[in-house]
Every structure is written in structure tokens, then in C-alpha cells.
Amino acid sequence: MRIGDNRPKMVASRNAAPRSTPLNEWPASHRETWEEIWRPGLRLRKGGAASRYAEVSREDFARRYGAFLDFLQRNGLLDPSAGPAAQVTPQNVGRYIAELKARVRSVTVWNCIYKLRMAARLLDPKADFAWLSEIEQDLALVMEPRSKFDRVVLAERLVQAGLTLVPGWRRMQGILYRPGDERFEGRSAKDALAAALGDAAALMVNRNAGSGTRVLMDTLLDGRKPPGYANQPKSHNAVAAAIAQKRADWGLAIEPVAKLYGLGFLPVAPEHYDFLVVTDRGERLAVQAFLSALRDQKTRERIRALGMEPSES
Questions:
Q1: CA angle 285, 286, 288 (to 5 degrees)
Q2: Which of the residues 26, 152, 238, 311 has the least number of beta carbons within 10 Å of its own beta carbon?
Q3: 159 half-sphere exposure, CB direction, 13 A CA radius
Q4: Under CATH, which architecture does the 23-141 domain have?
Q5: 34 and 62 Cβ atoms separated by less than 8 Å
Q6: CA distances in angstroms from 67 to 5, 77, 94, 182, 312, listed in the order given
Q7: C-alpha distance from residue 147 to each of 60, 206, 211, 215, 274 (Å)
Q8: What pLDDT does residue 297 have?
Q9: Per-residue model confidence as pLDDT tens digits over 257-282
Q10: In whole angstroms, what is the distance from residue 203 CA to residue 183 CA?
Q11: Terminal Cα distance for the chain, rounded
Q12: How do the domains of the chain map onto residue ranges?
């Protein structure tokens, strides 16, 4: 505490286990503002600033902000009389990140800071949190998502577990680009990728950590992080929109969104969507009805209409 600073501090044991401070234990000004911004709209009365978000987002943002408040309290840094902007400072966030890095994976560190920024911006919309966005982007550049390949299960293991794999459908993922771009037009995906990586002006758009498309992208890049790598939207449509709007030059997404946005598409790899059935329940009427629907010609035509290819078996 600074000399002459008589403001009260909420202090907890540094040895206490990290947790997320529940809403009813937040400083009064934070709690009251939070409840107001999430106030739902009623008839002609406009809702709070955050009322457009889903309930799951509200809970997630509150949990992440509560975790930050807990960190401040455990370290004697929480001033209950100060507003959010006075708590979410470069110094406090830097210390928080150091603690997170010591106990969680890099993707979780990024996610905690991303959600902290979202919560802080909602609580104090007039404050400038641009510095926190820069920290968030720096964390995104060093994220190392846990590979999904260690979760692959061989077919013989499924049989041993009493399960049967039922093939469903496939959809193709590939490189999206604006038609006429000579770095991609008329090339194979391999050659186009080499051309993009060899051009410092080529701006990519990535995908969010943990998604299958991100796993494929990181496999293709093999450790490289070209310009735009930190731009990580959460959907195929967002990737296509970024390219169509010239906010990026290339990225990975599925073929249907390339057609939807009028973009070029270079196939890279298919995604398989299959089903598991408990083998000894395969004769049940509900299971048979599902399998019959999956094989039905109208179902297969509908799958193709959505830009995917039904399995032949």
C-alpha cells in the first residue's frame, strides 16, 4: 500500500486456492453495474448494454472476471472502493498472467485474458482497454493448443468397447482466397501455401484454438506464424467474410462458405462426420430408424445440398 493511501484493501491469504469470486462477493459498485448491464429488456424498455449476450456468455464472463478479482484479493491488491478500470491495470494484469502461466496451459491463459477484457469493457465502456487487446494478441501468438491427435481411437478399440462406427458424411476444407489473386489462382493448395508464406504482404486469417480447422492450419504451417496468425475468429463464415471484405487474403474454411461468399477454393483435406452405435442395441427400432434415415436417398440429397458428401457405406 502506498504511504498516505488509506483506502481499504480486501486481503485474503496468498496460500488460498485460486477460485472465482462469486457475484455476491464482488465489490458493491462492480456487482451493481454488472446486474444493470445484464438487465433484460421489457416491452418498450431497452435492456442493459450486455442484454444481447446469451446466458452462457454472462456466466463465462462473470466466472473469468471473478477469477481476476480473487487473484487481486489473494494478493492484497483489491480496492473495493475503486471501479473496474482502476483494478484492470497493466501492472495487475501482468501479475495475473504470471500466476496463470505457472498453473494453466497457454490457451487457457489467453482465454482468461480475452474474457477479462470483455467483462471489463462491459463494466466500464468509457475506459480504454486497447493495451489489454495488445496483450491478448501477444498471448495468441504463443498459444500451443493441445493436439487432438492424442484423442484418436482406433477401430479395434471401438469393437473392444462394444461400439460400431457408422459412417455419416464428409465435407472438404481448403484454402479460401479472392478470385484473381495470382498467389492462389490456378495453383495446387501446396503451391499456393508456399506462395503465401513466401510473400510478407499476404495476410492470413486463422481459426480459434481448439477447433479442428486450427489443428489443420497449424499442421500446414509447421510452426510458422505468418502475418494475421493472431486473428482467430470462431467460424468458417467469419473466415470467409474477412477474406471477402479484404481484411485478409487467405485462410482455411469449408467449401460451402467459399461458394457463399464468391471466393476461390483449393481443397486440402476432408472432415469426416460419423456416428457410434452400441453394437448390442443395433436392432432397436430407434437405431434402425436412424440408420434407415441416414441411408435414405432424400437424406443423402439434402446432405449434398448442404455442400457435403454422404458416405457410400
A1: 65
A2: 152
A3: 3
A4: Orthogonal Bundle (1.10)
A5: yes
A6: 25, 13, 15, 48, 50
A7: 24, 16, 10, 7, 20
A8: 93
A9: 999 999 999 999 988 889 989 888 88
A10: 12
A11: 70
A12: 23-141, 150-310
| Residue 3 banded pLDDT, cuts 50, 70, 90 | very low
Residue 255 has pLDDT above 50, yes or no: yes
Q: What is the mean pLDDT of residues 125-152?
A: 77
Euclidean distance between CA atoms 190 and 172, whole angstroms: 15
Minimum mean pLDDT among 77-86, 147-156, 214-223: which range? 147-156
Q: What is the mean pLDDT of the chain?
A: 87
Homologous superfamily of 150-310 in CATH?
Answer: Periplasmic binding protein-like II (3.40.190.10)
**Strand, coil or helix: what is 46?**
coil
Give the residue, 234 or 149, on which the prediction is more confident. Answer: 234
What does the pLDDT look like over 40-62, one tens digit per residue?
877 767 888 888 888 888 899 99
Helix, strand, coil shares of the chain as percentages rounded to 5? 45, 15, 40
Alpha helices in 204-260 (DSSP H): 212-221, 236-244, 255-260
Q: Minimal CA–CA distance to 120: which of 106, 104, 135, 138?
A: 135
Instruction: List helix spans (H) across the chain.
Output: 28-37, 55-74, 84-87, 90-103, 106-123, 130-141, 155-160, 189-197, 212-221, 236-244, 255-260, 285-295, 297-305
SS3 assignment, position 296:
coil
Residue whose C-alpha cell is 508464406: 197
Q: Is residue 166 classed as helix, strand or coil in its secondary structure?
A: strand
Per-residue confidence (pLDDT) for residue 231, from 0 to 100: 93
